[in-house]
Amino acid sequence: MPLHAVQRRYEPVDPTLRSRGISEERPLDFHTPYGCSKGTADQYVLDYARGYGLPASVFRMSCIYGPHQCGNEDQGWVAHFALRALDATPISIYGDGMQVRDLLFVDDLVDALLLARDEIGLLSGQAFNIGGGPSQAASLLEVIGQLERLHGAIEVEFADWRPSDQRYYVSDVSKFARATGWQPRVDVEQGISQLYAWLARSRTSRRARTTDADALLQPAGHEPT
User: Fold this and answer.
1) Which of 24, 108, 119, 177 is the most buried (most CB within 10 A)?
2) Are 143 and 93 a contacting pair, CB within 8 Å?
3) CATH for 11-200, among 3.90.1300.10, 3.30.230.10, 3.40.50.720, 3.40.1190.10?
4) For 16-57, what is each residue's pLDDT tens digit?
C-alpha cells in the first residue's frame, strides 16, 4: 500500500483508503506465527458457521483499549504506554513512531458484541473489521503526545523496525455499521483520558494497600518505615 508521511503519521496515498480504511475485501496474507494463529482461528469459525450452521461471526479487531487494561508491550500498547509514563520509565518504539492504528474504546466494543449477539442470525458466517475507523486513528507519536498532555514529559527510546511491522492499519467498519447501525462513540482523546485516570487511580490504590499490608506485618511497637 503506497503511503506518505504527513506531519507525525503515515497515510495512504489513495484517498479512498484514507477516508474509509481497509475493508474485509482485502485478501488475508498472514505474517508471523502470531498472525497465522489468529488467521487460522478466523477461518475455522467461518467454516464451522457455513458448514455446520454454527451461529458465529468473526470480529477482526483493531486496537482495543480502556479501563481495566493493564497492557504489555505487544498487547494493549496504549495502556502499556500509559503505565510506562506512570512508572517514569522510557517507552520503547520500534520504527519511527509514525505508524498508525485505529483505536476502539472498550465500551464501544462491548456495544458491538451485544449487537452481534442480538443479530447473529443475520451476521453468522461473516467476518467484520471492528475498530475505531479513520476518525479514531492515531500514530504512536500522537498517542504519546496525548499522554504527555495528561502526564507531562515522557522519555521515548527508538529501535529498528521489526519484521512484518505495519506502518498503517485502519479498519473500514462500514460493513458492520450497515448491518447493525453501530458506530464508535468515544473519541481517542476522551478514551485515553479515561484509561490514564483509571491506571493512575489503580496505581495509587495498590500502593496504599501495600503500605497497609506492610504496617500489619510490623512487630508491635514499631512504626512502618
Assistant:
1) 108
2) no
3) 3.40.50.720
4) 999 999 999 999 888 888 889 999 999 999 999 999 999 999
CA 137/CA 99 separation, integer angstroms: 10
Domain positions in the chain are 11-200
* Locus of grid cell 475493508: 23
Pairing of strands 9-12, 3-6: antiparallel
- With a cut of 80, say whether residue 180 has pLDDT above it: yes
Q: Contact 60/130 with Cβ under 8 angstroms?
A: yes
Residue with cell 487460522: 40
Residue 220 has pLDDT above 90, yes or no: no
pTM of this prediction exceeds 0.70: yes
Mean pLDDT of the chain: 91
Helices (H), the chain: 15-20, 32-52, 77-86, 106-118, 120-123, 140-151, 174-180, 188-217
